[in-house]
Design goal:
GO cellular component, one term: membrane
CATH topology of the largest domain: Heat Shock Protein 90
InterPro entries: DUF7134, HATPase_C_sf, Sensor_HK_TwoCompSys, Sig_transdc_His_kin_sub3_dim/P
Number of strands: 7
Protein name: histidine kinase
Pfam families: DUF7134 (PF23539), HisKA_3 (PF07730)
Largest sheet: 5 strands, mixed
Structural class: alpha+beta
Shape: rod-shaped
CATH superfamily of the largest domain: Histidine kinase-like ATPase, C-terminal domain
Order of helices and strands: HHHHHHHEEHEHEEHEE
Keywords: ATP-binding, Kinase, Membrane, Nucleotide-binding, Phosphoprotein, Transferase, Transmembrane, Transmembrane helix, Two-component regulatory system
Number of helices: 10
Strand content: 5-15%
Number of domains: 2
CATH class of the largest domain: Alpha Beta
Mean pLDDT: 77
CATH architecture of the largest domain: 2-Layer Sandwich
Strand order of the largest sheet: 3-4-5-7-6
Low-confidence stretches: 1-14, 274-311
Distance between the termini: 65 Å
Radius of gyration: 46 Å
Length: about 450
């Protein structure tokens, strides 16, 4: 029976490994051969008896009985034909084994149940008629009621048990096959889930590496760039103006300590994320969005110790200090705030701060001595920031290496919060960086 309810003959079945023809296994072939031999012997004996009653050639009846009994070997491939043959030879009072095994095989097969019911009914009627005629015309002198009761019991007893047993075995076989298919399906689903989980874990690792690289770039690049600028200035004025050189060295040390503190904070967050809870709490994986909105797989820590990446991030209140650091490094920076200042979401303020920080760092790297302007605009539904600088001053000998990841990191941060980012050279020979983010309330 196919999934659409259509009958699929047994011949369409593919034998399993070790089988032959329509037998799934070799032991099935041996079983059918033994049953066919027993049926052939029975039909041979009953054929000789039928030849005596019908006054026909015993040899012809014996050959006919052998062929009829041996037909049981075809029961798995053509169960309907075997049952029809057993019904056809019922008047000759032969084929008991053929009828019993044939009805069992028919009921256990995938033949539609209506066909099984019709053939079982035909077998009952045929056995009933032959039994009544045999008892009533055999000279036993029994009452007709007794003859009828005996015939009914004989017909039902010859038909019902093999049919019921076949129905039970067939249902059990289908249940086992259904459970096996379901188990195979679940195994395939688990395999797919494992593959997807592995892909998600690998993607999360890549996202985490990208996030860490971006954070380290933001934390280190700005401070180190300012330190390099101050070191160059210190080298230039060390012999000419010792007092100014001393102030620059002190500022250089302060910046180095700030950079170290920020590095320690970053490493502390990483250690907290990767440390298993010692309190016995369950460890679970959770794909949580980080500052950039990228899913990051972290260990689920207790609520009291779960770090929030936005809690300790820089905010817009620290923007003046950031500008003063660039001014102390010799850059002419102007900070302009437009609109009513208000508190924003921590992640929005952090992204705006990082954009300004990276933009000023790029000015130190690529346009040393150029004047810069930072414009921060508060609007009704958004906040915008613009950092632009003029052309670099000539004669500067400060050379800072660039990894080419600054603009990419700024774009990723801004777009992760649903904002817009643009950058490019200006007509005056300078450079501009602008970002616009939704003004999420803090």
């Amino acid at each position: 029976m196919s999934t659409t309810g259509e009958y699929v003959p047994a011949a369409a079945a593919v034998p399993a490994a070790g089988g032959a023809y329509w037998w799934p296994r070799r032991r099935s072939l041996v079983l059918d051969a033994v049953l066919a031999a027993v049926s052939a012997v029975e039909c041979l004996v009953e054929g000789v008896a039928f030849a005596q009653r019908a006054d026909i050639s015993p040899v012809l009846a014996s050959v006919f009985g052998l062929l009829v009994g041996a037909a049981l070997v075809l029961r798995r491939r053509w169960p309907v034909a075997v049952v029809l043959l057993s019904i056809a030879v019922t008047p000759a009072q032969m084929g008991i084994v053929l009828s019993l095994v044939g009805l069992y095989t028919l009921a256990a097969s995938e033949v539609p149940r209506r066909i099984t019911g019709v053939l079982a009914g035909m077998s009952v009627v045929g056995t009933l008629i032959v039994t009544v005629l045999g008892l009533h015309g055999g000279g036993y002198g029994a009452p007709f009621a007794a003859v009828a009761l005996t015939a009914v019991l004989s017909a039902v007893g010859m038909t019902a048990p093999p049919v019921l047993l076949g129905l039970y075995v067939g249902a059990r076989r289908r249940l086992v096959e259904s459970l096996r298919e379901r188990a195979d399906g679940l195994e395939r689903e688990l395999t797919l889930l494992a593959e997807k989980a592995s892909e998600r874990a690998e993607r999360a690792r890549l996202d985490e590496r990208t996030r860490i690289a971006r954070e380290m770039h933001d934390v280190v690049a700005h401070r180190v760039s300012l330190m390099v600028v101050h070191a160059a200035a210190l080298q230039a004025v060390a012999l000419k103006d010792p007092r100014k050189a001393s102030a620059s060295a002190e500022l250089l040390g302060d910046m180095g300590r700030q950079a170290l503190n920020e590095l320690r904070e970053m490493l502390g967050v990483l250690r907290t994320d990767s440390t298993s809870p010692a309190s016995g709490s369950a460890v679970a994986r959770d794909a949580s969005p980080d500052l950039t909105g990228s899913p990051v797989t972290v260990l689920a820590l207790p609520v009291s110790s779960q770090p929030d990446p936005d809690d300790d991030g820089p905010c817009l209140a620290q923007l003046d200090g950031l500008v003063e650091e660039s001014r102390a490094a010799g850059m002419c920076v102007e900070l302009v705030v437009q609109g009513a200042e208000r508190s924003l979401a921590a992640r929005v303020e952090t992204v705006v701060y990082r954009v300004v920080q990276e933009a000023l760092t790029n000015v130190h790297k690529h346009a040393s001595g150029a004047a810069a302007q930072v414009i921060l605009a508060y609007r009704d539904t958004e906040v915008a920031v613009l950092v632009r600088n003029g052309p670099p001053a000539g004669g500067s000998d400060v050379r800072l290496p660039s990894g080419g990841n600054g603009l990419l990191g700024m774009r990723e941060r801004v777009t992760a919060l649903g904002g817009g980012f643009a950058s490019g050279p200006t007509a005056e020979g300078g450079f501009r960086v602008s970002a616009m983010l939704p003004a999420l309330a803090g």
